[in-house]
Structure formats: C-alpha cells, structure tokens
Amino acid sequence: MAGKPPAEVPAEPAAIKILLCGIRPAAHQITPKTWANLLSRFRQELRLSGVIDPGFMGRAARHPAWRPLMQAIDADKGMSNGLASFCNWCASNDISPSLVDDALIRKFHDWLETRTLCLKPRDVVRRTPQFWNKAGEQNEAWPKSRLTPVSFKAAAKRLQWDNLPRTLLADAEVYVAMRAKPDPFDERLNAPIRPLSASTIQQQKTHIRLAASVLIENGMPVEEAASLAALVEPERFKIILRHYHERGNGRPNAFAICLSKTLLQVAYHYVDVSAEHLSRLKRIGAKLPSIPFELTAKNKALLRKFESDRLKANLLFLPDQLAAVVTKGLSEGRVDFVKAQMAVAIEFQLAIPLRPQNLSRLNWRRHFIEPDGPKGPLLLHIPKEETKSRKVDFTAELPDRLALRIRWYRRHILPCLKADADGDLFVTRRGEPKSQETLTDQLNKTLASFLGVDMSPHQFRHLGGSSYLDENPEDTETVKALLGHAWTKTTRIYVGSASRRASKAYNRFVFDRREALKLKGKPRRTPSRKKERAPCAS
After folding, report:
1. Shortest CA distance to 208 belongs to which of 250, 160, 275, 242?
2. What is the pLDDT of residue 55?
3. What are the C-alpha distances in Å from 515 to residues 30, 433, 521?
C-alpha cells in the first residue's frame, strides 16, 4: 500500500511510522476493521523480531502500586484512556507513582518514539501531564506531584514584537486601525477607502513584524527600526524581498509577493512617500517571479484523482453512508454527532461549496430562510459583510436533499448536545460554536478514512467548479456566481487548465458533426416501381 518493496524499508520504528502515516487504507478498498487487523498482526511480527517492545496493555491495573490509582479514575474514560499508556509503561518498568516527574515524562517520550509504533507520540506525551495534574486535583489517593506542561511548538525563527522597538509597534497599530476602519472624510488622495478584513489586518501586521525582523537579522541596528518609514526605504525593501526570494530557492513565492504588497500599501497609504519613491518600490517588487496563473500542484493532483467515477460516486454517497451510521446509533442510544456534522458539511460542500470560514459559521437564525414554512424550500443567505469580496450578498436555494438533512440534524442531533436548534449549525459536545480549524480537521480525517484522499473543505470549491465546467465548458459565469468570485479571472484559476475541457468540447463537436454529415450524405433509396404486367387471358 505504501508503494515500497519490504526490503527497502529499514526495520526501525521511525522509518516504519513515516510509511504508515502516508497510507490511506480506503484508497485501496480496505475497511477500517481490516486495516486494524493488519496493523495488529504487523505489530506482533515486529515484537517477535525485536524491532519494538512488547505491549504493556493492562499492566497498571495488575500492579499493586498502580492498581488503586487506575481504579480511582476508572469512571472518567477520557482521563483513564489518556493516562493508560504512561501508567502501563511505568508499571511494566516497576516505577513507583511517587517517582513520576518531568524527567520521567521525557524518558516516556523517548520510548514512544524509538520502541513503539505509536503514530502520534507527541499527542500522547502532551496530554499526559494535563491528565496527571487534573487527576491529582480530583482524587485524594493520587500523588500530589505536579508535572510541567509539555509543548512541542518550535521556537520562533523571527523576532517577536517584544524584541522590536515599541515605537514600531505603535506605528503599526495606527496603520492597521486606519486600514480596518478608513475615515470616509480623509481628504488625502492616497487615503484608503475599502476596509480590510480582520484576517487581512492580522496578516499585514505579521508582515510588518517579519520585515523588521529580517532587517535586524541582516545587520540593521534595532533602534533604527523605530517606524514603518524605516521598512520602505528601497535598499531595505530589497533586503527583505531578497531574503524570502532566496529562502524559496528563487521559485515563485506567494508569501514574498504578499509581503511586498503589504509594504507597498504601507508606503502609499501611511508613510506617504513621493511618487518617484513609490514607483521605485513597485519596480523592485515586480522583479519577484510571478505566481503561475493556474492551480497548485496539490489541487491538480486532487482533481486528477477525481477522474475516477468510483471515487466520485463514493464522495457523492458519503453523506448517506454517514447518516445511516448516525441513525443506527440513535436507535441504540448513541449520538455520533461528529459523523452527523460531517454528513451535513459534505452534503453542503457538494451542493454549494462555501469558503471554510463561511461553512463553520453557519447559523440557522442568521443565514437560513424558509419563505413557505418548515416544509417548503430552504434558502441560504450570507450578507455581503461576511463574504470575501464584501460587494454583494450571496443567496442560494438549497437542494431538497440538503434541506432535509439539515432539518433532520436540527431535530435529532442538536437537542442531544443541549445546543440551540436556531443557533450555530456546527457545535462542540458542549453546544458551543465549533472553530473553523476543528471542523476542517474533522472533515479532512473523515474523507481520508472513508475515501482515502486528503481533501480540505476549500478544495470542494475547486472540484465543484471543475466538474461543472467539464460538462458545460462555456458557462464560466455560473461557476463564478456559485463560488462568489468578483472576477472571472479568479474562477479560471479555481477550475484549472482548460485544455482537457476544450478537447472534450471539441471532440463532441467533431463527432456530432460527423454523425450529422453521415446521415446527410447517405443516399436515399427510392422505392422501385414494378412493371405493370398485362392481365392474363381468362
């Protein structure tokens, strides 16, 4: 399944884990149960070969020192499952609970990395101190030693705002405030008119910090980075762009281009440089290699996968498959709300592929309209303030299947989560709004598990636009309206190269014409007239 001969794979846990992480069983028509059996047998072979250590499952429950502790947290399944690996490892090595400290956590992490096939050892180690400290707070029998939280976050490569002059931060705050809420009565010719979104504001502030950090790392005294004007001097502008250009090995770099545009906007709207100065900055920025006017390699590869009719069918019927699992669970007293949400989200993205931020924020009261009541059509309305272009509202009529699924979800799932059925559509187990990151991660995992593909919510937009234009190559405007694009140029990027689409349309034209000419050019047979015979003499 990994596409490698066994003889080429080192018999080392680190190498094997990398291999396993890249496998999507569903892509090979292997069910989760079969995959679990394969992994179980594979682990046993590796244990027999001495590549990994024997399993320690249940050791803590049988150890005299650890048994009372495991019994104390047995009712809390989240906590007992979260601490099981660590406690079993300690019990198997006859380590007393009183000896648990931060150094032991580091040894546990090393063991997970080098002697097991645990695919996410950092997640296990990260949650161990959290559950350990929580158990100590809730149980008298638990050791009172506290563990330091573990973080695997990489150290920042660039300087943070605390390491930069405060005057630069103050200058940046004034600039982003102006861009977030422009003054409509600002009489300057270069005054901004359109407000920027919160995400763009945050991005531009990050660009400013990184630009100052690069200059300081390249020898500029810290005190000279005291204002935004210091960042838009032509020679310093070159230093910043050259850094990211070389970091990208001279290839087209979207980040460098975006950072360049941010600094150009700072120079024009805020620093108010001369026309000659601004023109020089633009010439410098224009020397960066431009981004190709096409889909990324990742998106192209995904669209090629969906050339398969089997994969397309599996995606189209996946919401029904998930809903069937949820319905069965409800009849048995279980509420698999994540699968229910995935059924709704995937059905939604197939019918009306929204941007991930709009999908995650869907709210029944704010975004849905039932003009003819709860049994009539269901309309989606996203006000222009929540769209990317902020120019026009987005309104669409939901297909009957999607409307029925959303109503089913509101009636059967949201009440089980103690959530407001008229509020947010996607919520957590506690009924709180689910973040965009969590919804995206869950949808990615669902598609990888059931289809064997790595696909984000945003890529439904590429797939939807491309699929429609494959059948209607001349109708770009419909895709533009469906995806909420302000420019047709953007739509053409989203749907990818038109070469295959054009060839299909041309072939259809050629062969349809051939059939027409064949019928037209075929000689018609006229019925022959039989010669009249003389009547026979009677």
Report:
1. 160
2. 81
3. 44, 58, 10
Contact residues for 257 (Cβ-Cβ < 8 A; gap 6+) = 285, 288, 290, 291
R_g over Cα of the chain:
31
pLDDT along the chain (538 residues), means of 10: 91 93 91 93 94 91 94 92 95 94 96 94 95 93 91 88 95 96 93 90 96 95 94 96 94 94 97 95 95 83 91 95 95 93 96 95 96 93 89 92 96 94 94 95 95 94 88 82 81 67 71 72 59 53
Nearest Cα to 360, choosing from 350, 369, 348?
Answer: 348
Sheet holding 379-382, edge to edge: 368-369, 379-382, 394-397
3-state DSSP assignment of residue 369 = strand
Residue 443 is predicted with a pLDDT of: 97
pLDDT at 293: 75
H helix or E strand, kind and range, residue 395: strand 394-397
Using the Cα atoms of residue 523, residue 526, residue 527 and residue 531 in order, give the sign of their dihedral. Answer: negative
CB-based contact 35:27 (threshold 8 Å): no
The CA dihedral of 23, 29, 33, 39, to the nearest 10 degrees, is -30
What pairing do the DSSP bridges indicate for beta strands 368-369 and 379-382? antiparallel
pLDDT at 115: 95
Q: Where are the alpha helices (DSSP H) in 354-498?
A: 356-360, 364-367, 400-412, 436-450, 459-471, 476-483, 488-495
Are 24 and 51 in contact, with CB atoms under 8 Å apart?
A: no
Question: Model pTM?
Answer: 0.80
Amino acid of residue 197: S
> Which CATH architecture fits 298-494?
Orthogonal Bundle (1.10)
Residue-level pLDDT at 477? 86
Give per-residue burial for 194-205: e unless 16+ CB within 10 Å, then b: eebeeebbeebb
Please tell me the predicted confidence (pLDDT) of residue 523: 58
Residue 340 near residue 409 (C-beta atoms within 8 A): yes
Distances in whole angstroms, Cα of residue 509 to Cα of each of 467, 502, 505, 514, 516: 19, 10, 6, 9, 11
- C-alpha 424/C-alpha 396 separation (Å) is 19
Distance, in Å, from the CA atom of 150 to the CA atom of 104, rounded to the nearest integer, reads 12
Phi, psi angle pair for 379, to nearest 5°: -105, 145
Selection from 341, 357, 328, 338 nearest residue 405 by Cα: 341
**379: β partners:** 369, 397
What per-residue string of b and e applies to 5-30 under the rule 16 or more CB within 10 Å gives b?
eeeeeeeebeebbeeeeebbbbeeeb
Residues in the chain: 538
- Two tokens at 143? 């050791």
Rounded CA-CA distance 369/408 in Å is: 16
